[in-house]
Amino acid sequence: MQKQPTIRDVAQAAGVSVAVVSRVLNPGSGPVADATRRRVRDVIQALGYHPRTAARELKHGPPTTLGLMLADVSNPFFARLADNVVREADARGIQVLLMTTQEDEHLESECLETLIERRVSGVIATPTGDNLDIWKKLQDIGTDMVFVDRSIPSLPEVDVVGIDNVESARSATGLLAAYGHKRIGIVSGPAVSTTGRDRIAGYRLAVEAAGLEVDERLVRHAAFRGAAGGDAVTALLNLEEPPSALVVANTAQVTAVLRRLSHAGLSIPDKLSVVVFEDSPWTELMTPPLTIIRQPVDLLARHSVQLALAKTSGKSNGKPTTIRVAAELVERSSVSRL
Asked: Which residues fall within 8 angstroms of residue 36, CB to CB, at 6 or more apart?
């Protein structure tokens, strides 16, 4: 097996000192003549030398890599989040290492160990809620962490960025109640997730504010992956008194719910009024266009990147920060008055 070239090999081949090569690899760390810089870069390319990112970051301070660990990039919300995080990081000269856990705590554990080995400058993640020991290990080695969209209550010292899930679900449910609906169902995320719990909490607030009783049979949780949303809505439709309106508060299950409603031949909004947590362009192209909760993914990405880089840039106050941004209720044609 051929030995990988070292920084000393580059210095020797270019006829310069190791310190000069280091300055070429780390712009701004010291002066280098243009001709020398070009010669060193030519040698780096010719030898196929790859500097050790972790060692460079530890020695010179300024971050160069962020770890972005998302639950499911097949979910349009997370795909848009990843795109925006990369854009925000690139504007700051930061590279992003993207990993996905597929909502699997075992895969998340492997991803976390990889991020620890890579010694990334910071981690932005949607946690599964498990692997507390590894999350704490990341903290112990000084890695800045930001939870986005979800959080882990037992790790209160980690920065959190997300929408106001309680208020978003309250406004979606409140709209349906204001249109005269008294049987309002909801399909939310797993009860073990902070997102799932908070959206159910907002739903309950709106139902009670409308002077209605919360019927627990109308409250359904569904996993983020798979097609459990379809089964949840079928159970709602099979109730002796089915709902006349539905909030789909689980973004990952919106298409599964709509597919099941289509197969059931249920007309929207004539037979069922619907509000969904989704902002893909197709929601406006449907017949009828869907009333949605629009999540400001660009703001979530911007705040996440800023917090992940705050300590290394000297802009952190040393205290955990929680940022809740407002989502927008966009009313279209999928809700009717009773």
From this structure: 14, 16, 20, 24
Domain boundaries, the chain: 7-51, 60-163+297-325, 165-294
Q: Are 260 and 304 in contact (CB under 8 A)?
A: no
User: Which structure tokens are listed for 182?
Assistant: 């008294």
Q: Map residue 237 onto helix, strand or coil.
A: helix
Q: What is the pLDDT of residues 222-233, one digit of tens each?
A: 999 888 999 999
| Range list of H helices, the chain | 7-14, 18-25, 34-47, 53-60, 76-91, 105-118, 132-140, 165-178, 194-209, 228-237, 254-263, 282-285, 297-310
Q: 24: which 2 tokens?
A: 């070429």
- The two tokens of residue 199 are 């959206």
CATH 1.10.260.40 matches 7-51: yes
Q: What is the pTM of this model?
A: 0.79
Q: Over the stretch 60-109, which tens digit does the pLDDT of each residue have? A: 444 578 999 999 998 989 999 999 999 999 988 899 999 999 999 999 99
CATH 3.40.50.2300 matches 165-294? yes
